[in-house]
Amino acid sequence: EPEVTQTPSHQVTQMGQEVILRCVPISNHLYFYWYRQILGQKVEFLVSFYNNEISEKSEIFDDQFSVERPDGSNFTLKIRSTKLEDSAMYFCASRLSGTPYEKLLFGSGTQLSVL
Amino acid sequence: DQQVKQNSPSLSVQEGRISILNCDYTNSMFDYFLWYKKYPAEGPTFLISISSIKDKNEDGRFTVFLNKSAKHLSLHIVPSQPGDSAVYFCAATGTGTASKLTFGTGTRLQVTL
Q1: How far off is chain A from B18, nearest CA to CA, in Å?
Q2: What strand order describes the sheet that includes A65-68?
Q3: pLDDT tens by residue, A27-60
Q4: Contact at 8 Å (CB) between B25 and B92?
């Protein structure tokens, strides 16, 4: 089965630094998502992206966050100035259509540690 | 704001027995429910889903039951196998929020020999 690929698997950064998390969604998928899981907590929705624009975002996704699909294959999440509380596992996901009945496939995640 | 709750953080079951994982939700707008399985250092993997127009959906060893009046769903795994040991997340979505899933906190299932 095709996979969603995320790089790097681990990212360590200093507070206040910018980070970019990268994802390669499944090639024919049209809807893209970022979720995150703080250690021991639930998986939380951050943002959804379709047709080169954000379709929905959560309260977590503030002005420090941005997403981009720069070249038709990569999907990136940028955190402009990281905070300690941004430390989490970040998951990229994609699906063929926007309907919930379409399986949402997740990548293996990027563990972000902000020191 | 815990719209989806999994009240049991962990569950231990003997191999061959039934595992029952429970999930409650509060948002009446949810009309589609999913279970995901997650191994360490991997992303969540879709397991099974159910629409609110049904009360049961079965796929091999996995069955999901939905009780809409109680806003409760459960995942039954029978027979349980050691490879089923993982964290199981209940998730929900609705036609008004079709693009995003709201997850529970997860239940860690340990299947012992």
Answers
A1: 25
A2: A5-7, A19-24, A75-79, A65-68
A3: 989 999 999 999 888 899 999 999 899 999 999 9
A4: yes
